[in-house]
Amino acid sequence: MDFVKEDFAYYRRSFELMYRSYFRRRMLAIGVAILIILGYLFLLQESLLLNIILLVILLGMMAWLVSLYQRASEVVLAFEEENQVPQIYQLTEFEDHYAFHMKDGTTMRVKKNGNRNFPSNNKQYTLMAGYKKVFFVRQPLMIFYYDLLEMKYDEAYRLKRNRQNGFSRWSRYFSFRSFKGSIGNVFQFLLGNIFFLFIAYRLIRYLIDILLHVF
Predict the structure, then answer these.
(1) From CA 75, how far away is CA 86, in angstroms rounded?
(2) Which residue, 44, 80, 92, 161, could crosslink 8 as a Cys pair with Cβ 3.0–4.6 Å?
(3) What are the backbone angles phi and psi of residue 118, rounded to the nearest 5°?
């Protein structure tokens, strides 16, 4: 449809910048990690085999991220082609993300943090671009149309917004439900990111050793 072509032509640069910024942050983090390991090897020359293995893994990840970084135009074009017949989704708003059902029956979750709404040339719809609610994903960006008037709220989030649950602001943070949810999220994060936590531990240790050696 004409409005889809006009929308993507007008916002293409913004979409591509959002896509690239996701990978740029990760490339920067990996670059810093590589420099710390190289500095540790140069100054202290300990755990050579382990650090060489870590360097190989990190360099491989960097090369992979660079290849994905360069696909910004291709990814945005794919969304434009997918919406030649506009895919209009009904959003449900949660505290930290939006969710909607895809055409194949799966549920897509898009983080609120970093997402943007773009007015469409079709005044009935809004074009949203945001990041999938996944820690590490090959293609993080999600671009889709939704009808603002059809958006729903998760019941618990709606009650919290309207302050109809009878609890004070602070009591909600210390409720059993909140505590149980926090424990579950921490446990899930630890299990899903053991390798990255191991690298973070090594990097902190190396950085401390380098500072002690220098000063």
Answers:
(1) 17
(2) 80
(3) -120, 125
Cβ atoms of 100 and 92 within 8 Å: the answer is: yes
Locate tokens 């135009």: which residue?
A: 73
Query: For residue 168, what are the contacts with CB-CB under 8 A and spacing of at least 6?
Result: none
* Rounded CA separation 86/127 (Å): 11
Report whether pLDDT(194) > 80.
no
Does residue 111 have a pLDDT over 50? yes
Using 50, 70 and 90 to split pLDDT, how confident is the model at 189? low
Domain span at residue 47? 2-214
Question: From CA 156, how far away is CA 160, in angstroms rounded?
Answer: 6
What torsion, rounded to 10 degrees, do the Cα atoms 189, 37, 63, 69 define?
60
In this predicted structure, which of 145-154, 162-171, 187-196 has the lowest mean pLDDT? 162-171
Order of strands across the sheet that contains 141-146: 88-89, 141-146, 126-131, 116-119
Count of structural domains within the chain? 1
Helix, strand, coil percent content, the chain, rounded in steps of 5: 60, 15, 25
